[in-house]
């Protein structure tokens, strides 16, 4: 299995699917999940001639579980190590939820020379915490209560958070997904080391991405479900789109935070259309994707 070793000695698991000469698409997964969450995107994009690179964040999935490095800057540096290791150019970066924060911080810290565009799927951006410049945010006390619940019993916490209807709330009432798919998603969350889950969530929560979003100078697509309770559209997706110059917001009705699965066909069409329209910065070197299937 392919791994790369970061500068601080953490081994990151990654997979590299599709045509090595196709345009690279790099996927950053959600909080407490793994790169496997993207398995409904990979077949369609590979069939369109794209190269899909998927990795597990440190402390998640098959990557190492070090006792440090869960701050957003280190997580973005891990992504940079992957991009450099594979020598990717003209990449489109796709981040879901917390993964959207990582791809934005990657551009902030490492620059956009290797990146042609961003897709932010159900982002937790620009910031959920109440601060002076985010007076409509959520009080820290609410998150601290959430973290106490996770420490007590993360399975019980998920039931309380979703009123016992994890599939319907996480994926959305339009298509709540199967029992087995929901159980697989829950299992990934439960199996993520709690210390890594808590530390990484706190790091993203305490970061202020507003200045970074205003300074983004890349084609950017935001995809969000209008019944998302984990990252409500009016707190996250819509203000994110308003902050990024020239970005485009696509709202999918009736789906929740897990729209990558419950609205996979629509998400994949949007991804393929966006990638096809994303101008390369470097001449030659990659096969462009086929036109998105309708």
Task: Explain what the structure shows.
With 294 residues, the chain is an alpha/beta fold. It is built from twelve helices and eight strands. It has helices spanning 42-47, 72-85, 98-110, 140-152, 154-161, 166-171, 179-191, 194-206, 210-214, 237-243, 259-262, 264-277, and strands spanning 3-5, 11-18, 24-28, 51-55, 91-96, 115-121, 220-225, 248-252. Strands 1-2-4-3-5-6-7-8 form an eight-stranded mixed sheet, with helices on both faces. Helix 2 (72-85) packs across helix 3 (98-110).
Task: Count up the helices.
Answer: 12
Strand order of the largest sheet: 1-2-4-3-5-6-7-8
Counting helices, strands and paired strands, the structural category is: alpha/beta
What separation lies between the terminal Cα atoms? 35 Å
Q: Could you give the count of β-strands?
A: 8
Q: Mind summarizing the main beta sheet?
A: 8 strands, mixed
Poorly predicted residue ranges: none
What gross morphology would you assign?
globular
- Rg on CA atoms, Å: 18 Å
Strand content: 15-25%
Q: Residue share in helices? A: 25-40%
Mean pLDDT over the full residue set: 94
What is the H/E order?
EEEHEHEHEHHHHHHEHEHH
């Amino acid at each position: 299995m392919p791994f790369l070793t970061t500068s601080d000695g953490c081994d990151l698991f990654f997979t590299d699917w599709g045509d090595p000469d196709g345009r690279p698409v790099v996927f950053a997964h959600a909080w407490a999940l793994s790169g496997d969450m993207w398995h409904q995107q990979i077949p369609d994009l590979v069939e369109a001639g794209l190269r899909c690179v998927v990795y597990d964040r440190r402390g998640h999935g098959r990557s190492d579980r070090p006792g440090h490095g869960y701050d957003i800057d280190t997580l973005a540096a891990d992504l940079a190590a992957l991009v450099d290791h594979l020598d990717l150019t003209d990449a489109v970066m796709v981040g879901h939820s917390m993964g959207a924060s990582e791809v934005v911080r990657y551009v902030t810290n490492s620059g956009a020379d290797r990146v042609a565009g961003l897709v932010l799927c159900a982002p937790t951006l620009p910031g959920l915490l109440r601060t002076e410049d985010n007076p409509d945010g959520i009080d820290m006390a609410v998150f601290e209560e959430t973290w106490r619940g996770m420490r007590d019993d993360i399975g019980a916490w998920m039931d309380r958070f979703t009123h016992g209807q994890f599939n319907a709330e996480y994926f959305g009432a339009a298509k709540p997904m199967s029992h087995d798919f929901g159980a697989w998603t829950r299992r990934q969350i439960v199996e993520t080391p709690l210390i890594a889950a808590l530390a990484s969530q706190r790091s993203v929560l305490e970061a202020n991405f507003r200045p970074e979003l205003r300074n983004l100078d890349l084609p950017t697509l935001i995809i969000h479900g209008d019944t998302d309770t984990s990252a409500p559209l009016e707190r996250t997706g819509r203000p994110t789109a308003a902050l990024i110059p020239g970005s485009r917001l696509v709202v999918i009705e009736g789906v929740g935070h897990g729209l990558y699965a419950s609205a996979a066909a629509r998400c994949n069409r949007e991804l393929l259309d966006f990638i096809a329209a994303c101008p390369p910065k470097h001449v030659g070197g990659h096969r462009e994707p086929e036109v998105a299937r309708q």
